[in-house]
TrEMBL record:
Keyword Transmembrane helix included in the entry's annotation: no
Designated name of the protein: Cupin type-1 domain-containing protein
Residues annotated as domain Cupin type-1: 247-406
Signal as UniProt keyword: yes
Keywords attached to this entry: Signal
Lineage top rank: taxon: Eukaryota
Recorded coiled-coil stretches: none
Composition bias, Acidic residues: 686-695
Basic and acidic residues bias locations: 440-685
Record Pfam families: Cupin_1
Renumbered residue ranges of the record's region Disordered: 440-695
SMART domains in alphabetical order: Cupin_1
Annotated signal sequence range: 1-27
Amino acid sequence: MEISTRSGFLVALFLWSSLFQFDGILGEDFLRFVPLVTKEGRRTIVSTESGMITAVDVYERYHGPYGPYHLQFITLDTSSLLLPVILHADMVFYVHSGRGTINSITEDGTNRIDVKRGDIYRLEEGSIFYVRSHPDSAREKLRIHAIFNTILDENASGAFVGAYSNISDFIRGFDDEVLQMAFGVSEEVIHGIKAAEKSPPIVHFEPKNETDEVDWREGIFEALIGGRHAIGIVNAKKKKEQKTKALNLFERKADVENCNGWSIAVTSKEFKPFKGSNIGVFLVNLTKGSMMGPHWNPKATEIAIVTHGQGIVQVVCPGNPSGVSNEAPKCENTKFKVNEGDVFIVPRYHPMAQISFNNDSFVFVGFSTVAGQNHPQFLAGKRSVLRVLDRKILGVSFNTANTTIDQLLDSQVESVMFECTSCAEQLEREIEEEMERKKQEEARKREQEEEARKREEEEQRKREEEEARKGEEEQRKREEEEVRKREEEEARKREEEERRKEEEEEQRKREEEEARKGEEEQRKREEEEVRKREEEEARKREEERKREEEEARKREEEEARKREEEEARAREEEERRKREEEEARRREEEEQRREEEEEQRRREEEEARRREEEEQRRREEEQERRRGEEETRREEEEEEARRKEEEGRRREEKEEARRHEEEQEEEARRREEEVRRQEEAIRREEEEDELEADG
Ligand SMILES: *[C@@H]1O[C@H](CO)[C@@H](O)[C@H](O)[C@H]1NC(C)=O
Ligand SMILES: *[C@@H]1O[C@H](CO)[C@@H](O)[C@H](O)[C@H]1NC(C)=O
Ligand SMILES: *[C@@H]1O[C@H](CO)[C@@H](O)[C@H](O)[C@H]1NC(C)=O
Ligand SMILES: *[C@@H]1O[C@H](CO)[C@@H](O)[C@H](O)[C@H]1NC(C)=O
Ligand SMILES: *[C@@H]1O[C@H](CO)[C@@H](O)[C@H](O)[C@H]1NC(C)=O
Ligand SMILES: *[C@@H]1O[C@H](CO)[C@@H](O)[C@H](O)[C@H]1NC(C)=O
């Protein structure tokens, strides 16, 4: 029985993992989730002589500075008072022990709740409340476990202002005038309030008369604000005070009850004050050696506080969200032992099982944050969700024979709570073993690391030694090598030196040769140059000479030309002169000729005339002789006269010719003068031309 249950339980958990994958519902907000907060892990908020308040912030999968759920553990000694505070969040509480009174003031009026162990109640956000513990010193301390739903507050202003705030601070914060006006009291009252020493949150409080409720309350306010007037409460007081009853979990019929334990859950449906709240309360009492069967909440996260005993809680992770960085804590299957005062959180969809030890019962009260209608789903027993599934499919899912599945589902009748003797012990052992294993593993790991480190060091050392050795070896080799190389180098150098010398020798020879050749060439070149220069000079000289000759020639030519020109001109002149002389002579000759011709003609005419005259005269002589000889002498006289006349005429003619000749000479001289003038003009022109050419 025990074995089958256990195996069924484990298989069921395995099944869970294989059946569902819940990527997305967890998200990275899940990272803040911590499944267990031990009693030692609580923060202390208030600690006075009369009581203390500790707190735990739990994360479901939301994040924020305080988390969405704030838990407070308020402990009041007998005859103590938690001074009024203003609630910032819905508060659901469970009275773990003791007795007391909780007074709350809301818009609807005042409300007084007498509370005792097992009571649950809810105070709405915005209400003012204060708590008084029972004065009976024989009684237990008043212990209240409260949860504050701070989700809204967290978002509202960006900063969480705490679950509640101090009312005296609230009032003291205002200016005197404001308070005076607001409360209609005298200045002294306000001063009295303000001057009063600030009270700690929890104070000792002894009512003057237990039955005198009015005095009792006035006493509170006196203690609170230092005056007898219960200001602010006055109006509320006028309204009818309600007396509400809390719900006591122990007085209610359990939802599930058998010899292995009982459990009860209260939601907003079942308890009127819870209405509008998303928080429910549950209580589980597992008797010795029992188990709260594997189950999960599809809509609720369970935040449980161990109120009695010890137990083992196993939580299965439905799967890790994908895309979460490796640094984030992993969602893992966990099992852990819880002690009284510890808080453990099981997020929705996480299958869980709680198991009690054989030697004690295991009681835990919890708050379930319900996001809707929640029905816990049990995996084993008659109520198992697995029974709904087809067994063949289950067989395939578990990869086992029909019979195993049948066994798994049919052996356990109970679903919620069943016997599980020594289960917790075994699990504890496993946990311890695991922890031991982990420790050992860690130790081993550390050792291994140490060893690895040592090995590493050793290796390092060896490597270094080796390297050193190698280094030395290499050094040696290098040195040898170097020596060898040096020797080689030297040999090489020597060779080179020799070669170099040879080369140098050769070079020298070559150079000498070349120098010689060079000199030869140089010499030749120089000679050549000299020769060339000489030639050049000769050439130049020749040219010079030629040029000079040329010039001389030119000059001569020029001179000759000029001379020739001169001569030509002279010749021309001469010729012209000759021509003119010739002309003159010719003209003279012509003249002469003409004169001679004239003379001739005249002589001929003279001749002719003389012949005629001769004739005439012969005829006349004849006649005359005939006429007589007397006439002869007259005639002779006449002849004589005519001859004289002729003589005169000839002289005249000669005179004429001489005059003419003179005229001719005059003419020739004039022409000569003309020629000379012309020559003069030509010479002037030439001179001008030369000047122009020079200019
Ligand atoms: C918180 O406020 C943001 C905007 O300021 C809003 O988008 C978001 O829904 C709010 N969350 C809750 C839980 O009210
Ligand atoms: C109220 O405020 C005062 C001063 O800040 C502080 O000493 C006291 O503890 C507070 N009381 C509560 C109940 O928080
Ligand atoms: C309280 O008041 C009642 C009557 O009102 C009286 O009988 C009783 O003695 C008083 N107790 C104390 C402690 O003063
Ligand atoms: C739990 O159950 C056991 C056995 O029935 C009982 O002795 C014990 O008082 C119960 N505890 C609470 C807190 O109810
Ligand atoms: C019950 O047993 C557990 C484990 O065996 C042990 O840790 C625990 O102290 C015991 N409780 C009591 C009350 O003996
Ligand atoms: C499994 O169960 C089915 C029906 O219940 C049956 O027909 C089949 O033979 C079974 N197989 C085995 C291996 O038992």
